[in-house]
Amino acid sequence: MSLMQQSLVASLAEIVGPDRVKTDSESLQVFGKDWTKAHEPRPVAVVLPGSTEEVQALVRFANEQKIALVPSGGRTGLSGAAVAANGEVVVAFDRMNKILDFNPVDRQVVCQPGVITEQLQQYAEDKGLYYPVDFASSGSSQLGGNVGTNAGGIKVIRYGLTRDWVMGMKVVTGTGELLDLNQGLVKNATGYDLRHLFIGSEGTLGFIVELTMGLATQPQDPTVLVLALEEMEASMHVLQAFQAKIEVSAFEFFSEKALRHVIAEKGLARPFETEGNFYTLIEFENTSEATMDAAMSVFEHCMEQGWVLDGTMSQNVTQAKALWRLREDISETISRFTPYKNDISVQVSKVPAFLKEVDAIVTSQYPDFEIIWFGHIGDGNVHLNILKPDSLAKEEFFRQCGEVSYDIFDAVKSYGGSVSAEHGVGLLKKPYLHYSRSEAEIALMRGIKSLFDPNNIMNPGKIFD
């Protein structure tokens, strides 16, 4: 360690304590990355603050010394937003992991940013309530990261995004100033709502140090249907038919190729003997006999119309969880193939045509690559995963996929879509931001960044340079 590094570590230790500064190679690797594998982590140090005051002191010190800071939550991100690849100091929020307060009248919980998503879900359940934002990484993702990327997940069609559940927040800006935004109010028409600037900002404007999250009523008897489809276009007819008769909580899809990987890797059973090219997973609350009758009637109608080849319905909670695994275990299952991920969205009605066009682009240019499709078709968000062949080096694989991404994002732009539906921009999507945002929008975002972070110390190089 150089004398300059020793001096830096000593200064950081004065702020958070010597045992809260990590410089060993294992810690630098663990805390300096997220789930992406395209960039090697190279932070100079990791600090674990335990309070808002320590975060403020770190930011003020970084301003004085012109040191770049990278926030680190559960490190489950998929865009490289939490990667420290250029000698930055990682600010990890693992110690700030407490639930501070609960108000049963307002149905709001005050949390520190390091609270695990599943921890909040369980806390809400213990209080007879429900935190509805859910996704595959809920067991390790942290609320600060969820808010920083405006995480979506599997229940957006009914409950919305993380944004819809943030009732207030405290943030430390790039100058070290503490802002207390919205303070849990349902109605607050007093000018610009700065809270929404920080949601989805990926730590580039400031660090979230406290969150006030809203809770919902617990769902009653969530019931799951898995249906096999021959054509993706049929999914729109199925969605429309079910939404006309019952309130749908989730409407997911996955391909036969994805299903085969999950079954082989996880030892799960097929939902039924019939094979379709695609599958939809539908969840609804079985609140009454009339609801169940309506669901069965719609299912039979879809079969009669030829939209659905076969299907199955859960009869209890255990079966519902087993059917969800067919969809939720896909990301973990294919991770061993070092997939190149595209998290893209268009209007719901355009998904089938868009998916067919993009699939044709990828398969024509790289016929030897296996393509895995799945996603949240009910809100227009699809995940394109290209699996790396064993014989191809990681660097060459990412290079080739990066080239085809320009054609994919040309299609995204022509459909008026987004190059990042829920994973954020970070490092991986930064070169493609202009496909979804105009020059004027990007210029305004740069201006906002410079206002909150004039010395460019807050997660620099993420979203844009």
UniProtKB/TrEMBL annotation:
It comes from the Bacteria. One of its GO terms (molecular function) is FAD binding. Residues 39-218 form the FAD-binding PCMH-type domain. InterPro entries: FAD-bd_oxidored_4_C, FAD-bd_PCMH, FAD-bd_PCMH-like_sf, FAD-bd_PCMH_sub1, FAD-bd_PCMH_sub2, FAD-linked_Oxase-like_C, FAD-oxidored/transferase_4, Oxid_FAD_bind_N. Pfam families: FAD-oxidase_C, FAD_binding_4. GO terms for biological process: respiratory electron transport chain. Its cofactor is FAD. The keyword Oxidoreductase applies. It catalyses: (R)-2-hydroxyglutarate + A = 2-oxoglutarate + AH2. Its EC number is 1.1.99.39. Keywords: FAD, Flavoprotein, Metal-binding, Oxidoreductase, Zinc. Homodimer. Belongs to the FAD-binding oxidoreductase/transferase type 4 family. This is D-2-hydroxyglutarate dehydrogenase. It comes from Pseudohongiella spirulinae.
